[in-house]
Write a structure and sequence with these properties.
With about 375 residues, this protein is mainly α. Helix content is about 60%, strand content about 5%.
């Protein structure tokens, strides 16, 4: 018995095989290696059966994926796709693991790319199997892609969490608040991209549910509900730009729509009102403290004046931002005291009366974006 030196066709390692056997296995990657001993002449077209090779690549890809070696897993899945472009597992996981690492600036783009590629993965997954297997694939894919969107969104949230709650009345708090505002556009892009990217996956699942394909509809609806819950959780994240101020990065109307979609599949889910979310995100802090409610005639008048008059000019908007930066802290410190309310009550009463005389209404009002 002797040994011959060969090179592994999968990982490129130099190995030795027993020359008395037709094949052996690579000591490094486990791939099956066949000795090239016999040459047979063929005439005409020859179809090479690479099933065994593809099966080995799948084993290696899964092993790399499970061990967290995303780069190697992506490489193996890419090799499979070169031979089998419609392999659903290779297509799905190649996109998933290829986009597992990214910078803060790249996060939004990664979410967008995943959202665009996933519908095709669903089509591949249900094309070549029975309905029961198709449902299992749908459930696996939906959970993994929803969780990936949540992971990406969490990177945007983490940018802001470091600098929440800065007290702008102190030098350190002012620096903290400035950093929050500087990083906010990147975080908004990341979170919004994740929220929007859910739409393409949601539409594909809804299409599968509507289609007469034999796949269990209730099982698909459970996956759709999971997807919608994760999206709502991302959209509803709340942050504190500076002490006493709360905000969400997604518009309240969209959050409300996402909540309604959950309610469609789970009637026990309570839909929070858009108004209550906006109230929590910031408003006439001193006036609310003085009059006891964000929704009362005096505050409706002041809110109209803020949105229709102050917000129409750059210096008015500057005043509003300055007011929102300072007033929450003042209310937090002194809002419970009688002297604070008495100090402001007279001034606000006179201002409200003047605004009413000039035609500013005191009827129920919804805030305007500006």
């Amino acid at each position: 018995m002797g040994f011959i030196a060969v090179k592994c066709p999968e990982c490129g390692a130099d190995i030795q095989l027993d020359d008395s056997r037709e094949f052996g296995f690579c000591n490094y990657c486990g791939a099956k290696v066949v000795q090239d001993k016999v040459v047979v002449e063929h005439r005409g077209t020859v179809k090479i059966d690479e099933t065994e090779k593809l099966d080995n690549l799948l084993v290696l890809a899964r092993r790399a994926r499970d061990s967290g070696d995303d780069a190697k897993a992506a490489s193996y899945y890419s090799q499979i796709l070169q031979k089998e472009p419609d392999n659903w597992e290779a297509y799905f996981y190649a996109n998933l693991v290829e986009n597992a690492s990214f910078t803060n600036a790249q996060a939004g783009g990664v979410a967008t790319k995943l959202g665009r590629t996933m519908p095709a993965a669903y089509d591949m997954a249900i094309a070549d199997c029975n309905p029961d297997e198709a449902l299992k694939r749908i459930q696996t894919m939906t959970k993994k892609i929803a969780d990936r969107f949540a992971d990406i969104a969490s990177t945007g949230a983490a940018l802001l969490r470091k600098y929440e709650g800065g007290n702008v009345l102190t030098p350190t708090g002012k620096v903290q608040s400035d950093l929050y505002n500087k990083l906010r556009p990147t975080a908004v892009n990341t979170v919004a991209s994740c929220v929007v990217s859910f739409d393409s996956v949601e539409k594909k699942l809804e299409e599968i549910i509507r289609t007469d394909n034999g796949i269990d509809k209730e099982g698909c609806k459970k996956s759709l509900l999971y997807l919608r819950r994760v999206r709502y959780g991302i959209a509803d994240m709340q942050f504190e730009p500076s002490v006493g101020i709360q905000e969400r990065l997604i518009k309240a109307e969209l959050i409300h729509d996402y909540a309604e979609k959950i309610h469609e599949l789970d009637p026990s889910f309570t839909i929070p009102s858009v108004e209550s979310k906006e109230n929590k995100s910031g408003g006439c802090y001193v006036a609310t403290c003085v009059y006891g409610s964000y929704d009362c005639p005096q505050v409706w008048t002041l809110r109209r004046y803020r949105d229709d008059t102050l917000a129409s000019t750059w210096y008015g908007r500057t005043f509003i931002r300055t007011y929102y930066a300072v007033s929450p802290t003042l209310v937090a410190w002194f809002g419970h005291t009688d002297w604070f309310k008495k100090l402001w009550r007279g001034k606000l009463d006179r201002m409200v009366e003047s605004l009413r005389e000039s035609g500013v209404a005191d009827t129920p009002y919804d805030d305007k974006p500006w």
